[in-house]
């Protein structure tokens, strides 16, 4: 990936396919913008200052051109697909507008998102969404099938995600709806992190999602997660730049503190938002919940003091889990979340390291039939499991060779830290995990010894005086 279009403010921010013909021999694919996309420089855009808009518009400055592969629909086609946008086709609503379920003539079921012209987003966000999803492809990013730009109509057509959003399965569940189990929660977190990793580490320049939240994680069959709604996405800093300065956008409760205060945006801003969503998965609580008592309305502010006392870790688990979770898995998940939501951006892990840790957690299948909070015994694959444990432990402890997918190490050691520091929490969690592993190994040794004694018919422990 290294391919984003260049916008010329002198042409009223049009996508200009004929600009810079001298660059036609580049290896990157060439963008030929459809005429209806070029016409998106509506009167609303024409009124904006051309000086400021060149930097702000989409954030796609000084980048090579690419071909937009998304299909172009007419408004009539999408009206027919959704039964003229009738209420029975309505499936949700967000900052962009209303979303309808539809069916194309081919039989493909799709989700059609119609821009609310009086809503929070507009042509700018529409263009970002079309371009970003035309250029970025990954199993954990939603697929854009096409778009419509007839007259003043702006619609986006996506693959249909039958299970809705993560938010639908975490909060305000109806009595007849089963809550997500622990294994599913870890798999959703792992998949969402992989989607974010693609934006940060694989796209060039990196893409900052800027609106990571539970309602923007859509779920396919088997709760396979995909990130959606790229209208607020920005290109990250390049060269020797440490951040991108922009107006503050996003959702309250998910925004990183440094971004909310200064408008300085980095990939670590997304990591903070991920940490909030991961806390939602662990606790079942909303990022902001005004129905909670004072002091519990902000999820991060409520959770941070509980990180301080390992005796309270179990209280952080979603009550809907009814104790059906592995205590060791809970400790490790809390360690990841606590580091992601650190106040200082520099202290947060890179998303590649988060993916390494969560891939491990997602692969540790928990059997709900075991005693709640019970530590699983090592079986025949004990050596392999211990090796994996050691790798995740090195990530938490910032030891050599454990930098994860990003090639960097987590800074969770070093320096004197206050007791309520997330770094101190990570060390405490890791110490407890080591202790539990030692206990599990001791139990395994004891059971092996008892089996051997029964086989040999011995009535006493011959090595008791060694």
From TrEMBL:
Gene3D superfamilies: Phosphorylase Kinase, domain 1, Transferase(Phosphotransferase) domain 1. One of its GO terms (molecular function) is ATP binding. It catalyses: L-threonyl-[protein] + ATP = O-phospho-L-threonyl-[protein] + ADP + H(+); L-seryl-[protein] + ATP = O-phospho-L-seryl-[protein] + ADP + H(+). One of its GO terms (cellular component) is plasma membrane. CDD domains: STKc_IRAK (cd14066). The keyword Cell membrane applies. GO terms for biological process: innate immune response; positive regulation of defense response; regulation of innate immune response. Residues 85-361 form the Protein kinase domain. Its main location: membrane. Keywords: ATP-binding, Cell membrane, Kinase, Lipoprotein, Membrane, Nucleotide-binding, Palmitate, Phosphoprotein, Plant defense, Serine/threonine-protein kinase, Transferase. Residues 8-26, 389-400, 408-432 have a biased composition (Basic and acidic residues). ATP binds at residue 113. It is a lipid-anchor. Its EC number is 2.7.11.1. InterPro entries: Kinase-like_dom_sf, Prot_kinase_dom, Protein_kinase_ATP_BS, Ser-Thr/Tyr_kinase_cat_dom, Ser/Thr_kinase_AS. Residues 1-36, 389-432, 447-466 are annotated as: Disordered. It comes from the Eukaryota. It is found in: Cell membrane. Signal peptide: none annotated. Belongs to the protein kinase superfamily. Ser/Thr protein kinase family. This is non-specific serine/threonine protein kinase. It comes from Solanum stoloniferum.
């Amino acid at each position: 990936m290294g391919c984003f279009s260049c916008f010329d403010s002198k042409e009223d921010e049009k996508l200009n396919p004929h600009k810079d013909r001298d660059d036609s021999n580049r290896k990157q694919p060439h963008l030929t913008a459809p005429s209806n996309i070029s016409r998106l420089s509506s009167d609303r855009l024409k009124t904006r200052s051309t000086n400021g808009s060149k930097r702000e518009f989409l954030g796609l400055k000084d980048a090579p051109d690419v071909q937009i592969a998304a299909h172009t629909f007419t408004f009539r086609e999408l009206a027919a697909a959704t039964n003229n946008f009738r209420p029975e086709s309505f499936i949700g609503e967000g900052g962009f507008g209303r979303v309808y379920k539809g069916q194309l003539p081919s039989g493909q079921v799709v989700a059609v998102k119609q821009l609310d012209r009086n809503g929070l987003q507009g042509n700018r966000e529409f263009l970002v969404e079309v371009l970003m999803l035309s250029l970025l492809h990954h199993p954990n990013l939603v697929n854009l099938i096409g778009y419509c730009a007839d007259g003043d109509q702006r619609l986006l057509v996506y693959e249909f995600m039958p299970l809705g959003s993560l938010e639908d399965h975490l909060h305000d569940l109806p009595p007849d709806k089963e809550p997500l189990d622990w294994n599913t929660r870890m798999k959703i977190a792992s998949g969402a992190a992989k989607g974010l990793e693609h934006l940060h580490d694989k796209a060039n320049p990196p893409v900052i999602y800027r609106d990571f939240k539970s309602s923007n994680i859509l779920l396919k069959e088997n709760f396979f997660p995909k990130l959606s709604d790229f209208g607020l996405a920005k290109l990250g800093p390049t060269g020797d730049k440490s951040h991108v300065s922009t107006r503050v956008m996003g959702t309250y409760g998910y925004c990183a503190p440094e971004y909310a205060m200064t408008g300085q945006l980095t990939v670590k801003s997304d990591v903070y938002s991920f940490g909030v969503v991961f806390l939602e998965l662990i606790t079942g609580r909303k990022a902001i919940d005004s129905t909670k008592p004072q002091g519990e309305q902000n999820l991060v502010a409520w959770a941070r003091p509980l990180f301080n006392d390992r005796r309270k870790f179990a209280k952080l688990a979603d009550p809907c889990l009814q104790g059906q979770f592995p205590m060791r898995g809970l400790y490790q998940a809390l360690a990841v979340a606590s580091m992601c939501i650190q106040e200082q951006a520099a202290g947060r892990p890179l998303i590649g390291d988060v993916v390494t840790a969560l891939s491990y957690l997602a692969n540790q299948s928990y059997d709900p039939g075991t005693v709640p909070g019970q530590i699983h015994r090592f079986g025949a694959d004990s050596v392999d499991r211990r090796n994996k444990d050691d790798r995740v432990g090195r990530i938490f402890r910032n030891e050599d060779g454990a930098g994860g997918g990003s090639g960097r190490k987590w800074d969770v050691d070093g320096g004197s830290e206050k007791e309520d520091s997330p770094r101190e929490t990570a060390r405490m969690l890791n110490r407890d995990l080591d202790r539990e592993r030692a206990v599990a190994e001791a139990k395994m040794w004891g059971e092996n010894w008892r089996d051997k004694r029964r086989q040999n018919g011995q009535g006493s422990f011959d090595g008791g005086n060694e």
